[in-house]
Amino acid sequence: MQKNKGYVDAQYLNTAAKLLEPIKHRSYELMRIEPGQTILDVGCGPGIDTIEIAQLVGETGYVIGIDQDPEMVSRADAYAIKLGLNGYVEHRISEAGALEFESDQFDTSRSERLFMHLLDPEQALSEMVRVVKPKGWIVVVDSDWGSLSIDTTEIEVERRLARFRAEKILNNGYSGRRLYRIFREQGLNEIIVETFPIQATDLKLLRYLSRQDEVEKKAIEQNIITQHELQRWHYDLEQADRGKRFFASLNISIVAARKPKVR
Ligand SMILES: C[S@@+](CC[C@H](N)C(=O)[O-])C[C@H]1O[C@@H](n2cnc3c(N)ncnc32)[C@H](O)[C@@H]1O
Asked: Which residue of 22, 117, 260, 262 sits 20 to 30 Å from the alpha carbon of 4, by its own alpha carbon?
């Protein structure tokens, strides 16, 4: 299968999940999960959240995760089987922009770090709203890659790379800051926005999670930065890391809202 722009593998998602645990848990709170509910996770990846949520809804509930990547879906199913939860959590191959579900079916729908990959995030949100019951909650978590800030003396290169990642490496790299707008455009009620800064003082981890090798390689290929600038940038970051003063931050937003009683 052709991997989409900005593809990350299951190992990446498991590493990121540890750092994002408080944000994930806050998203579950905003979903107002209760035992017995039926819940949809769009762009579920290897099932990190569907498995957690299955334990919150319990055996009387039901959780469905969808993902366009068959590899992610089979990993997620294997994880559910391993934990003996497969009676009430399942994963399906499906496309976020055209959900294969009846309208008004789920108590809640959620999506995490999917919208940054989408060419048409409005369509995906409208599908998430469609399949939720009236008055149900819709919760989306996403990063604003334009907000990635790295402390460096090479500010010019740092800014150019941040823009390049947000605008060229990802389909919708500014997704986090755009969520509030697209939620409002859907005419949803009780909109809540929360933004969380995540921080890194470990250069190696930051490079891995921001897929810096790939960004720099493509930035060189597309003449966004020169080899000389790349060397200066690496030197500065490594000096900071050696001196234990490396610092970077990134904003992640959660937007939650309720589907109106009548649309
Ligand atoms: C960054 S991962 C996040 C996975 C998971 N939500 C998590 O937080 O661990 C994005 C996931 O969205 C899936 N994806 C990307 N575009 C999609 C689309 N158009 N429809 C459905 N899934 C999609 C990818 O295959 C990937 O598993």
From this structure: 22
Instruction: Report the nearest-CA residue for atom 12 of ligand 1.
Output: 43
Give the separation between CA 55 and CA 41, rounded to whole angstroms: 14
CB of 71 shorter than 6 A to ligand 1: no
pTM confidence score: 0.95
User: How would DSSP label each residue in 3-37?
Assistant: PPTT---HHHHHHHHHHTHHHHHHHHHHHT--TT-
Residue nearest to atom 10 of ligand 1 (CA): 114
Interval 109-155: pLDDT, tens = 999 999 999 999 999 999 999 999 999 999 999 999 999 999 999 99
User: ∠72-54-254 over CA atoms, to 5°?
Assistant: 75
Element (H, E) at 133: strand 132-150
Compute, in angstroms, the gap from residue 43 CA to the centroid of ligand 1. 4
Q: Does domain 10-32+95-258 have CATH number 3.60.21?
A: no
